[in-house]
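Example 4.3 (complexes with small molecules)
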Amino acid sequence: MKTIVIANQKGGSGKSTMTVHLAAAAEAARHGPVVISDTDPQGTAADWFNQRKKAGIETPRYSALTLSDLAGRVKALDEAGAAYLFIDTAPSIGAVNADLFALADLILIPLNPTPADLRALVKGLPLVRQSGKPFQFVLSRVRPNLRNNDGTAVALQSLGVVLTARMHERVIYAETFAHGKTALETDPKSTAAHEISALWTEIRKKIESKNS
Ligand SMILES: Nc1ncnc2c1ncn2[C@@H]1O[C@H](COP(=O)(O)OP(=O)(O)OP(=O)(O)O)[C@@H](O)[C@H]1O
Ligand SMILES: [Mg+2]
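Answer. The structure with adenosine-5'-triphosphate bound is encoded below.
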């Protein structure tokens, strides 16, 4: 099982939206079984999962993580046959995140392409680096044709790996979330569905390669 921790201490950077969409994309591509966990007390991804269950959709699965026994729970999911575990995290830098990073095969950092988000990132990055784990940046909530977009990507390249695929600002991401759905099942032919599938393909290729 590969564990992907989605983290950025900046609130609203798109962590929860990206977590559930990537998990659904991995399932849709038949790379599952996929499990989502939510370690954020706000419970955004857990709420999404509860709505999804009410809508009768069974995948991805959800598993609560006990913070006092993170390693044990992750091992149990691995032994139960999960292929990928996506962990959504709180907008904070603290001991919990350090513990989660220790378990990660990959730390995924969604970032809005704004100067303020870039400055906030620089403060949180030392904790990521201390973990010694591979990390990748992905531009999120990207609005087309903003000069900030490419400028942010260039600035990020000096800090680490920046994924080519981006997640744009799209109404469908926000609207489907409230109903426990994703763009993938609401409109599988949409640009959003293609975009999120491309993002998952790029992440999977990197995580499954030895040099990730
Ligand atoms: N790509 C996107 N397109 C449109 N809306 C988005 C997108 N990503 C996130 N949003 C919206 O932005 C808000 C914040 O997104 P989200 O909850 O995913 O961020 P977060 O990083 O998990 O926030 P927090 O730090 O509070 O946990 C939500 O209202 C969500 O619907
Ligand atoms: Mg969140």
